[in-house]
């Protein structure tokens, strides 16, 4: 900083000033004048020095701040990338677990429930999901297997819902899994899966009672500010919206309503009723699942372990149609919907305690080819962006694949400035696979509900032994009859595509040893459950109240 000082008159002479005014030899000033001038000069020098020092300090601070910002953008174990997962469903929990395995990531999960309750019926985990779980954590996989039941290694397929005979049995899941040396598709109780995952994530990762409502992207790659409905605010470098089909994160990102008209989610036209009970059909250990098919509805039942059968009844129902609210009325509704069908269907519904029967309308949305899943340091995952019909049992599996992909991509981030491009690459890596699975799931629903009917059988001729419209000779019934010959190879191709995502592989011997261990335990537990149920019936102490049975569809108990 330059300072100009005025020269004292006694130091200089100016041209044009007369000698009368200024002599050629200046006279000496008095002592008081000299002291005053000396004091003034020193003061000016002190001020100048102070200004110079202050300026230098400010410059050094600016340089240090620039260095701190530069160092702060680097991602290291000492300065990890802060990640918030919004939502503690299966996809959110698995993603939190996967990311917690990366030392350069620090993960928090914000969950709306004030406490986790046991909710949801059994969930299917296909071979692709089992492979990625094992790839993420061996201990987690082993604990899951202790509660798992394999179904894909058994007889599965479509059943003629009128005649109670196989329409199209297949072993496509077993064939596809064997082709990649993968464990078979199976089921686990959702509460058990939730418990295993919660135990697997680091302590303090899950923060309950936090429902994400919005976010704000900060400038200069400084991350995201996350706002919750309780008024709390949280900051992170990456926000992952795993907050379900009615996602607040997606609504803000895409500028649309969270739910209802304008949300992009549409009613599928189907309502599903669900129930579960301890039950012993003759083919319990031989069959994984059956799909009883007929006009405008179908009925799925599956072994879900511990001597239980889970069933889903899918019905085509116009939007706005009245559905009974009481559990007993729901049970009667389901029985009436399948009146005249296989006695196996009606017996299973009848054996199910009414309080455990629930229903849910099904919604989905088209693939987002023209809307990215990412907005700067924010991205979407699972049902928040690609909800799908449940026919292939891939909804949770695809959410887990999302989380596994994010794990592999975010572990490579070296600087926070890379995050937006990495999340766009995540979208590009996942969009076509998830879109294909959405398409296959929707096609399966539409075929079963809109195309399939009771098939015509050639050995019944042109008669209608079951009544008009029930497998008699008509165009749709004839087409459906011969369609059975085309479906098996289609199913093999479908499951081969689904299982093609398998980051971890076993040997064939390892798979068989694992399956034997799980299924031996399954047989013992099932027989114990049947014996206990039989004894309770004989004693008159059986409990059909539904108490203690987790809700199929209610996610949380309290908010």
Keywords:
6-stranded mixed beta sheet; 19 strands; 7-stranded mixed beta sheet; disordered C terminus; globular; alpha/beta; 559 residues; disordered N terminus; 14 helices
Report what the structure shows:
The chain is of the alpha/beta class and 559 residues long. The protein has helices spanning 31-73, 90-100, 127-136, 138-145, 172-180, 190-200, 248-254, 327-337, 343-351, 395-410, 419-451, 475-483, 487-499, 508-539; strands spanning 81-86, 105-111, 122-125, 149-150, 155-160, 165-170, 186-189, 206-208, 212-217, 224-228, 233-236, 238-241, 266-278, 287-294, 297-303, 308-316, 358-364, 374-375, 378-380. Helix 3 (127-136) runs parallel beside helix 10, helix 5 (172-180) runs parallel beside helix 13 (487-499) and helix 10 runs antiparallel to helix 11. The longest helix is centred in the first third of the chain and has 43 residues, at 31-73. 40% of the residues are buried. Mean pLDDT is 86; it is low at 1-54, 61-71 and 555-559.
Total number of helical segments? 14
Strand order of the largest sheet: 6-5-14-15-16-13-17
Task: State the helical fraction.
Answer: 25-40%
Overall pLDDT: 86
Q: How many β-strand runs?
A: 19
Q: Give the low-pLDDT segments.
A: 1-54, 61-71, 555-559
Largest sheet: 7 strands, mixed
Strand content is 15-25%
Report the structural category.
alpha/beta
Radius of gyration: 35 Å
| Spatial separation of the terminal alpha carbons | 62 Å
